[in-house]
Amino acid sequence: MNTLLIKNVLLSGRKTNILVKGNRFENLDAPSDTVVDNVLDGEGTAILPSFFNTHTHAAMSLLRGYADDMPLDKWLTEYIWPFENKMTALDIRNGSELAVREMIASGTTFFSDMYFDIQETIDIVQKYGIRAAIGITFVESHSKSEQKDKLDMLENWVDPTGGRIMLTVAPHAVYTVSSELFVKCADVARQHNLKIHVHLSETEKEVTDCKAQHGLTPVRYLDNLGVLGPNVIAAHVVHIDEEEAEILAERGVTVAHCPCSNMKLSSGHLNYALLEKAGCRVTIGTDGACSSNNLDMREAMKFAALLAKDRSGNPQLMSAEDAFRIATRNGAEAFGIDAGAIEKGKLADAVLVDMNNIKMQPCHNLISNWVYSADSSAISHVLCDGKIIL
Amino acid sequence: MNTLLIKNVLLSGRKTNILVKGNRFENLDAPSDTVVDNVLDGEGTAILPSFFNTHTHAAMSLLRGYADDMPLDKWLTEYIWPFENKMTALDIRNGSELAVREMIASGTTFFSDMYFDIQETIDIVQKYGIRAAIGITFVESHSKSEQKDKLDMLENWVDPTGGRIMLTVAPHAVYTVSSELFVKCADVARQHNLKIHVHLSETEKEVTDCKAQHGLTPVRYLDNLGVLGPNVIAAHVVHIDEEEAEILAERGVTVAHCPCSNMKLSSGHLNYALLEKAGCRVTIGTDGACSSNNLDMREAMKFAALLAKDRSGNPQLMSAEDAFRIATRNGAEAFGIDAGAIEKGKLADAVLVDMNNIKMQPCHNLISNWVYSADSSAISHVLCDGKIIL
Prior knowledge:
4-stranded mixed β-sheet; alpha/beta; 390 residues; TIM Barrel; 4-stranded antiparallel β-sheet; homodimer; Urease, subunit C, domain 1; 2 domains
């Protein structure tokens, strides 16, 4: 098994040597003369878990800056959808590559995606060495044969990387997927032990329409259909009441909070206090770069923390430590990936942060500097699955 | 006069050569063989106006990450003030240097500061070649002789840089300065044609206390004292009503909006729609790094735009173009500095942005990418007063 020694790196304020064996942390206090295949000089850097981005549309990085500052309806119908209709498989490939390169450069080693022509995105993930949960998107408007092809792909798929890529079942949203299709998606996910990735309660209109059509809010409607469970990752979850927060927590649903996208589109703002009180697992997603407009989890983490404080009027809500855990470990746990912390035995996904970067100085509190002050210029190396990918 | 030719740089989407003569843009379409003292290769970059940060406490960068995620009272009384009481002139110098280096690295060429031991900060500004408006802070608790020393300094001061540094009169806030001292400050400012830099309506408590003590809100109280005028830059201005927005606009007061600081301390959120409707000039400040926790105007600009949209429910409010103008030209205008735009005759303060940076691609819209996507890793050069300072 390949071995890597990260020398003289700061871990919890102490300088140490970290041995990575294969794709896992083997020894967090290794002798400096350990014989290894590769050595990485970590002098002047601190090691931290990398980011887990739980809601993306990677290929939409091609639409970064294409349409901003307009109402959701106009944005979608006049700009985004017409653009997407013209996208080829090669566009998806190029967009995914742009996204993956940006994610690595900003310290992210995992993303949960929802888009089409997924083989292109899978190829890019394989090539660049990061992790992904690639959603197979289901919408009502697809033909029966298209839906069958997708189900076949789920059944027969083998991860070409042997562990870095999983498929997820991605019924798009309550306004694009019928009850029958939602139930079918939930069945398939149960049968193959897969995660479900869905947009949920993103806008007021979604809630109003769902109540008009089904007599229930989106959360209650999906719960009634038996869709909600610990394998569900629900993106946005902006418009919910206290009881819905409790339903989500009881079912073990994970929320993918997308602060930049929600704020920019004026969709509303996630009520973190409510979800935290209910005991719901919150993670962070950037959403696609056409709404957010980057895939920078460090920035999204600061937005999440400051938005929580601003919305609640409570400056103690979502501390730097909380925001950091939400953006790293919580995301890994939601997808059952044994990473998100620098611990012996964990998968070696990590960021080396340059402590000499001007935004990291002085260092009264490393996590505070990382969450509230840093930017990607402070990242010196990124590790995923035991390999140096930046 | 020193001359500089910036070759092959993108300006408004067109590749050109820009001639800087002395400290001003002389020709935006200069021949590529113009004979000059210095040549800067701008290939692959775009030129944009640099940032004008209208509210800082530079030396407080030493307190970055020192105390976070706590109520304002505890934060001030148990952490910030005790720390500040121990700060020496050398600390102020080091903190100012850290701040100035961070500002330059993130594309800022001007800051309006309010702190003490200002000679230390002035020395650093002089050394690093940027611009600043250095506030002479007035608080009631200073002795009469201290106040007199400060007034003397204002009267006798000569800018050692011959144009990059101005002093401002900085009565701290309505809760730390008496009516008499406010009136004296306003008189001195009028007499010497100086700007006034003041904290205003930052918290609900400030408003409640001011009404209890003076029977008026802070804006109305200062207006009654005759303090408000076009020379006033008021930081925060979070808690105001419609009539107060109109008073501020009528008097020509500039607002220094500090979105990150306000959100992190849960002080409330500036009502941009109200100020815009009233016709009030809004600019952006980072506040000190102990609340914001960096001095990154690009990040503050994105926070300002997204906060405006989130607070108003209107995604069209504060477009990327608006946010960019607010963070650049508006700040320059507020301080009477003939910069903030890449135009013939303007002072040559600018940023060269690396168009190959992953966050700047693709480029459907340069300003949108700069406001919503970029970070400091995209900055290749910074110019201030005609000189390359990064």
